[in-house]
Amino acid sequence: MDTAAPTGARARTRRAILDAALSVLAAKPAASLSDIAAAAGVGRTTIHRYFPERSDLLAAIGSYLLERIDLATARARPDDGTGAEALERVCQEYFELGDVLLFAFENNQATEWVDWESESESDRILGRLIQRGHADGTIDPRLPPAWVAELMWSMLYAAWQHTRQNQVPKHTSLSLCLHTLRKAIAAGC
Amino acid sequence: MDTAAPTGARARTRRAILDAALSVLAAKPAASLSDIAAAAGVGRTTIHRYFPERSDLLAAIGSYLLERIDLATARARPDDGTGAEALERVCQEYFELGDVLLFAFENNQATEWVDWESESESDRILGRLIQRGHADGTIDPRLPPAWVAELMWSMLYAAWQHTRQNQVPKHTSLSLCLHTLRKAIAAGC
DNA sequence: TTTCTCCGGAACATCAGTGTTCCATTTCTC
DNA sequence: GAGAAATGGAACACTGATGTTCCGGAGAAA
């Protein structure tokens, strides 16, 4: 079994495992490898072939989360327009992450699986665009970048909770989230 | 062993177990009864004397959370002043809950331990004061009560995260939280 | 001082999950 | 079509946690 990045069928199997793991663990952090295998439609032995131990799978999930977040950040074109406009686009793209978002938010221990002590690329990009917002007057300079980032993440979570707990359509929750975020970060008001 | 509400030393022991359980499980949801016992300074057998099975302890934690939240809601005097003023006081009291807040937020499965399907008293009070805010013009009527409640909870969590992750003093985080909540819910702006 | 209650540590049985090995089957590639 | 690679289910050993029982000690109460 070579350790090169898998291709074709092997890549699809690996991806299916990671997607299933995200969903299952988001709903039930203590879910077993058997639970994940069943959700992925593979055998438990197969899980072990791709990820020798449970900790290896968790680490891979962590990396997968960061990868998905980085891709969403790129799709948001963070360097275009004002800081506030860019932040709203990032917010929209992150909202579409669904399980990734919920997982990253609810599972604090995910930070122990990958080295999240060091900032991710998305963190840096987010920090810069908030500072750009301070400079162009679209984001309240009294709000530190770290707080604005934390705020956005938590409002995204609130939006998803609003959808799940209160049976509200996704787009309504996103609209409320964007509307409220806009007001929360606005300068001069 | 009678099942009457414990008093004196027994009540203190029970309380110590619940407080330790909250802290330990907030940081590590899969923590064992041994972990909790160690943190509470009691023997594991003692845990079993107060809570026959792990599920009994979890249920007691759930009730304890609700109790703490209800007390914090009462302390906030929700019927005084405008809706927005009352909401800010509730926010401040909830912030002081610390571990209770973090636990309730990060552990979705806590909702499975007590019957959270039916609204708690605090939920109803919160809903009423947000509607009062709509009526007295201090809370944006475009924001549904359920969304405002969800928003407040998530911003409280963001504030605590800001303190933990970014080494910011508690009072600074609370100030940012209240400042941002005020802007987010304001009508006409 | 005696009795009673509570407690904690040790020991034990049980169980669920993990990691590993094996082998037959299926799928994929040439 | 053949061979290689991948897969899945079964079986097994191991581990950690839980629930239970027991007993001696400490502290409180009578």
Map the helices and strands.
2 copies of one chain form a homodimer.
Chain A: H1 8-27, H2 33-40, H3 44-50, H4 54-75, H5 83-95, H6 99-106, H7 121-136, H8 145-165, H9 170-185
Helix pairs in contact in A: 1-2, 1-6, 4-7, 5-7, 5-9, 7-8, 8-9
The first copy, chain A, binds a DNA duplex (30 and 30 nucleotides) through helix 1, helix 2 and helix 3.
Strand content of chain A: under 5%
What class, by secondary structure content of chain A? mainly alpha
Separation of the first and last Cα atoms of chain A: 61 Å
Multimer state = homodimer
* Helix residue percentage of chain A: 55-70%
**Greatest chain-chain interface?**
A-B, 33 and 33 residues
Low-confidence stretches of chain A: none
C-alpha geometry of chain A: elongated
The SSE string of chain A, one letter per element, is HHHHHHHHH
Number of strands of chain A: 0
What is the arithmetic mean of pLDDT of chain A?
89
Largest sheet of chain A: none
Cα-based radius of gyration of chain A, to the nearest Å: 18 Å
In DSSP terms (H or I, runs of 4 or more residues), the helix count of chain A works out at: 9
What does the model show?
2 copies of one chain form a homodimer. The first copy, chain A, has 189 residues and is mostly helical. Chain A has a domain at 78-185. Chain A contains 9 helices and no strands. In chain A, helix 4 runs parallel beside helix 7 and helix 5 packs antiparallel against helix 9 (170-185). The longest helix of chain A has 22 residues, at 54-75. The model of chain A has no long low-confidence stretch (mean pLDDT 89). The first copy, chain A, binds a DNA duplex (30 and 30 nucleotides) through residues 1, 8-10, 13, 32-34, 37, 42-46, 48-49, 52-54.
